Fold this sequence. Notes:
The structure holds two protein chains of two kinds. Chain A is of the alpha/beta class. Chain A has five domains: about 10-65, no CATH class; about 155-215 and about 385-450 and about 475-500, Rossmann fold; about 215-380, Dimethylsulfoxide Reductase, domain 2; about 585-695, Beta Barrel (Barwin-like endoglucanases), CATH 2.40.40.20; about 695-1025, Alpha-Beta Plaits (2-Layer Sandwich), CATH 3.30.70.20. Chain A is about 25% helix and about 20% strand. Chain A has a seven-stranded mixed beta sheet, with helices on both faces. Chain B is an all-alpha fold. In chain B, about 70% of the residues lie in helices and about 0% in strands. Chain B has helices spanning about 15-30, 35-60, 75-100, 110-130, 155-190, 195-205, 210-245, 255-280, 290-330. Chain B is globular and about 65 Å long. At the A-B interface, helix 28, helix 29 and strand 36 of A face helix 5 and helix 9 of B.
Amino acid sequence: MSNSENKYWRGIEELEANPATLENVSNEFSDKLPMEEILGDSEELSSNRRDFLKFFGFSVSAVALAACNKTPVKYAMPYINKPEEVTPGQALYYATTCGVHNEGFPVMAKVREGRPIKLDGNPNSPLSQGAMSAAGQASILSLYDVNRLPHPKIDGEDEEDWKNVDKKVNSILAGAAGKPVYVVSRTVTSPILKASIEKFMEAHNATHVVYDPISYSGITKANQESFGQAVIPSYNFDKADVIVSFGADFLGTWISPTKFTADYSKNRVPTPEKPEMSKHYQIESLLSLTGTNADYRYSIPASKQGKYLVSLYNMLSSGSGELELPGNALKQIAAELKAANGRALVVCGSNDKNDQVIVNAINDLLGSYGNTINLSASMNLSDYDEAAFESFVSKAGSAGAIVMLGANPVYSYNNGTKLVAALAKVPVISTAMVVDESSNGAAVHAPTNHTLESWDVYQPMNGHYVTSQPVISKVFNTRSAAESLRAWAGEDIAMGDDQASHQWVVDYLKGLGVDANKALHDGFVDQTPSASSATFAGSVSAASSAINANYKASTGFDLALYQKVGILDGNSALNPWCHELPDPVTKVTYDNYVSISRHDAETNEWEQGDIVKVSANGVEIDALPLMIQPGQARGVIGIALGYGRNVQTTLDNDLVDLGKNAYPFVQSSATGTNYMVQNVTIEKVDSGYEFAQTQTHHMIEGRDYLREATIDEYKENNAVRNEHKFETVSLWSDYDYSKGHHWAMAIDMNACTGCGSCVVSCHIENNVPVVGRTEVRRRRDMHWLRIDRYYSFEADADETASVRVGPSNVDQDFKKGEWSTKENELAGLDKVSKKGDKDFGHYDSVKVVHQPVMCQHCDHAPCETVCPVLATTHSSEGLNQMTYNRCIGTKYCGNNCPYKVRRFNWFRYNKNSKFDYHFNNELGRMVLNPDVTVRSRGVMEKCSFCVQNIQMAKLNAKIENRKVKDGDAQTACAKACPSNAIVFGDRNDPNSRIAKMFKNDRSYKMLEEVGTDPSVLYLTKIRNRKEEVQHS
Amino acid sequence: MFEASIRQPLVEGNKTIADVSNDICAPIENKPTKLWWLGFTISFFFLMIMALSLGWTVWEGIGTWGVNKTVMWGWDITNFVFWVGIGHAGTLISAILLLFRQKWRMSINRSAEAMTIFAVLCAAQFPLFHMGRVWLAYWALPLPNAFGSLWVNFNSPLLWDVFAISTYLSVSLLFWYLGLIPDIATVRDRAVTKARKFWYGFFAMGWNGSARTWHRYEIVALILAGVSTPLVLSVHTIVSMDFATSVIPGWHTTIFPPYFVAGAIFSGFGMVLTLLIIVRKVLNLNEYITIGHLDAMTKVVMLTGSLVGGCVLNRVLYCGLLRYGIRAICFLK
C-alpha cells in the first residue's frame, strides 16, 4: 500500500513519539544481530565476508526498489494572515439564505476553513424553524457546480474583465434605442435587486417582466377579488384542528412546505395529557406526499376538483351539494369543519382563480381568517402575471435587448419554442450561473454570484426580512446581478468584494429601523404584522358558475402535472443529491414517469414499465415509462415537472438528458396557469422499462416492524399495540451503560411525513457517494438513512377486519412460540390482495406509513460478533462503530444485519470517471465534510449517529468545563427534520427528550424479538380515524 | 495379492505385480495421450477465464459481481460451501474407509485425496476474493502485528472458517503425501533419467519397501486417519455455522450442521465419481478402478442423498404441514 501522505512514520509508537521508542532509536543495534543462529550451525560462529556482502547487496536493492515508489505531493496552504475567527478544524456558522422554494429561505451555513459545507434551517426564524427541505439541503452543491460559468462571456468568448462586459452591454443597449428593452426575472423578493431593476428600467426605459415556472397567480387573483389584496396568505396548520386539502401538496411542494410541515406536525402528536390530534382530509387525484399523511384520503378526478369545492361550499352553506364522496364523506367533512369552530382550514392546490375564490368563501364561512389564515403576513411568492408575460412573448421578437435575470422561460414556458424563435433575433444578456436553455446563445453572459457568495436582503413574507451574507469568497469571476444592473444603468459602483451590495444591505436594514449587524447575525428581521380579519367580498355564484361552465366531461385521461419533492420546478436539474433521493411516494430515483391507477392500467392491459406516448392539445411526449400508483384516481395520469433539462455540462452522468419535459402541457388562461389537462391520450409504444426504485429492495420477511392504531384506541390505552413486551435472553454478559453517555434515537412515526429531508441531510453530512441510476437498479444505493414507505388497504365497509401492513397477529404468534415469517405474511397479503377483484377498487384508496430506517445501533449488535477482524465494534456509549481502516470487506456484517442498513463500497466512488458526479471533480469535492472520512473501495459503511458531532459536542463541553447538554450533540437527520420526528440524545440524562421517549408508551423497538436491543425507538403511528383496527 | 473367494477381485484382469507397476506408471513414463491433451486444454481454458475474472474483480471492485446491499454474498458463498463439501469425499475415503478397513479404497484414495486438496484450494479462493480488500486478507489471521493491540475476533464464524479450512488443508496435504510415498518410490526405482531419479528420490524420503517402512507407514496412516475423521464432520459443520448462528430468516436454522455434512459427502462422492469415470477412461485404468468401485461409491451417494432428502423433507414438514397443522388445531379448539 503506497502512502500518499508526505510525512512517513513506521509505527504508532513513532507517530505518537513514545519515549521508549525514541530511546530505542538512539541505540538501534543494542542487540547483536542473530544472523549466526539463522544461517549456520552453532559450532560455526562465523558469518563471513561473503555473507555480509550478500545481505548488504540484498538490503541495498530492497531499499532501492522501495524508494522507487513515487509519492504524490499534496500541498496544504497555511494562512499568511490568519483571519481572527478562523481556527483550522473548527466550524463557523453564519446566518444567510438559500434560494430554493422561495428566494430567501433563512439558513445557517456551516463553514469549515472558508468553505461552506452544510446548510441547516435557521433555528430562530419562523419560516424554517431550524429545519430545511431536501431540495434546500441539496442546494449547497450548486455553489460547487462545475457547470457554473467561471467568467463572463461575450459572444461566446470568455472575458476576464467586467469593464469590457459593461462596455459590450452598453453598446447593445445603445443599439436598442427606440426598441423596447425587457428585464425578465422570477418573482423578486429582494428589495435590493428590485431597486437595481428600477434603476435599470429608468436608465433604459425598460420593462420588467416576471416569469415563474410554478405560478400561484390563481391565489393572488382570487384574494384580489375576495379581499382586495393580491397576496398569498400565510396558512397556520398548527392552529387547525380540521384540515381539508383539495390537491394541495402543502407538506411536499406547495408554497412553503418546510414551514407548513413544522406547523402541521405540532398538532399531529397525541400525548397522554392531551390525546388529541388534528384531523386531516386529503381529496386529490394523485397520491401526493401530503396525501400519504392524511387520516382520510379520497381520490377524485383532477377535472372535478372545482365541482367538489362548490359542493363542499354548498353543504356548508345550505346543507346539500351536487357531488358526494364515498360513504357520504363530504357531508361528514362539512360537519366536522363547522364543529371545529374557526380552528379549521381548507386549502386547494389548484391555480385557478375560481377554485380559489370558492376556497376563500369556504374559509370565510368557517371563520378561518384571522385564525388559521393570515392575510397580512402574506407570502411574496408570485408576482407572475400570465397575461403580461404572454404579451411579452408576442412582442419579444421585436425587442432591442432582453436581460434574462435568473428566469428560464425557454425551458418551462409552455410556448417555449415561440420564445426561442424570438430570442434568436434579439441580443440576450443573461445573468444565469450556468448556460441554461434561456441563455444558450446569449450575447453576454454576466454570471451572478451564488446566494452564498452575496450580500442581500429578501422579503419572502410580508414583514419578514431575511438577510444574506457571503460565506465564501467568490468561487468564480462573477458579479451580483444587482450590481451588474446598476453598472449597466450607468451608476459608478465600487467594484470587487461586493462592497456596493454590502452597503445597500446595511442601508436597507437601517431603513427598517434595526441594527444592521444584529440583523445580519440573526439572519432575519421579523416585523410580521399581526393577523387581521377580512371581509369576504367575492362572488361565489360567479365563481361556481364559471367552474361549472369550464367543466367538460373528459373522454380521455386527465393529466395532472405535479412537482417532486427533490426536483421541484427543475431548477436544480444537475444536482445529483436531488435525483438520488427516492421520491417519497413512489421511491423511484432519477426518472420521471407517467403514473396511472391500477384500474386503468388493467383495463387497457398496460403494465408497469410499459413505455407510452402521451399527447394532448397538440403537445406530445414521445416516450415515458408507466408507473402503476396505488391510491391514484381513475381516469387520471400524473407526470412530474422539472425533467428534460438541457443545461450545458461537461459531466457525463445520469443527470444529462434525464426524463422528459412536461411543461409544454401547462396551459395559461386569464384565471391562472393550469397544471391540469383534459382529454389526454396515451399510446403504448414499448415495454420493459426498469425503474430504479428503492422500496422493493427491502423485504423484512414479514416481521413486526410497523405498528399503528387509531386515536380512539390510543385514548383507551396509551400503549396500544405495544402491550406485549418480548422477553429476550442474551448469551453475552451485558455491558453496564449506566455511566457516561448512552446515545439513542427516537423516531415518531406520527410526526414523520416522509419528506426525505433527513435523507439528503445525511447524504451531505457524511460524504455519502452518489452512485447513479444503474447502481440503484442493482440495489446498491449508498444512503445511510432510508425512508421505507408501506401501503395498506382501507378497510371495506362490509368487512370489519381491517388489514394492517405486515403480519396481523404477531403478538398471538409469539405467545404460541412462533415467529411470524414470510409464509405467514404472504398468506396474510394473499387474503387482502383480492386477486379475483378485476375492478381493483381497493387500489383507489390506500393508507401509507413512512418509516425512516438507519443503523439501529443495537446494544447486542449481530454485525459486531461476526466481523472476523473486529472492524465493527461497540463503544462504551452505545454506538455501533465502523472502523474503515480495519475493514477487509467480508460483508458478513451486512448479511447478518436484520435491518439491512449497512452499505458497501462496491466500487471506488471518488475520482472515478464512471461515477462522474461531484466526487469526481475538484470543485465538487469542496463540499466534503472534512470531519468524515471518504471511504475507499471495498469497505463497509453505515450510519454512525453522526459521531463527529457527538465528539464535537463532548469536546466543546470539556473546553467550557460543563456537562454535555441535551441538544448539544445532534445528528444531521434530527437537525434537518421539519416535523421534529427524530429525537436524538443521551438516554442516561434523565431530563433529555430522548430519556422521556423511552418512557413513552407509544415507543417500541423494531424487531425486538430478535434480541438485538436497538438504540433506536419507533413511536406507534396513531391515525385520527374512527374505524376499529381489529386483529384477525 | 489378496483374493477372497466370495468377492470380486479388487483388480481385474489377472494382473501380476509387475503388470500393476507397469500399468500404473504408464501415464507418468509415457507422453500424454490426445485425450489427456484435450482434458488439459479445456481445464486450462477455464483456468485462464478464472485468472481474468479475478484480475478484473481486484482491479474494479466487488461491484463487478451481482451482489447488492441486501444480498451481500452470492455465488461466492455458494461456491465456497460447494467446494468445501466436495473435498469431504476425499477425506472420507482416505480416513474413514481406512478405519473401516475397506480395501477397495486403495486404488482411489490418492486421486480422491488430490481432489480434496484442489477442492479446498478452490473453496479458499472464494472467501478470499469476495473480500473488498483482498490485499489485506492476512488480517484475518491471528498474527502479531504493528497495528497496536489489534487481534482477530474469535466470536466470528468466519474466523472459525479460517481455522477450519487451514487445518483441513494441512491435514489433507499430509495424508495425501503420505499415501503417495510408496508410489513415488516405485517411480523412482523405475526412473531412467537423472533428474527424475533425484526428484522422485527426494520426495520418496528414502522409502525402501522394507517391512519396517511399511510398518511405520501403516501407523502414521492410522494416526492421520484418526485426526482426519473428526474433520469430515467438523469442517462443514463450522461452515454451516456461518448461517446457522446468524439472525437472518432462512439462515437461522439449527438443522444446518448435519444437513451440510450429509450434503458435502453426497456431492463429494458425486465429484469423485465424475472425475474417476473420466480418469479410468483417459488413463486407461479400467481394470484398477472397476465397476465394483463405482458401485461401492454409488452406495454412499445413495445413503447421503437420502440423508439430504430427509433434511429437506424435515424442513418442508416443519415449516409447512406441521406449522399450519398446529395453527389449525389452535384455531379449531
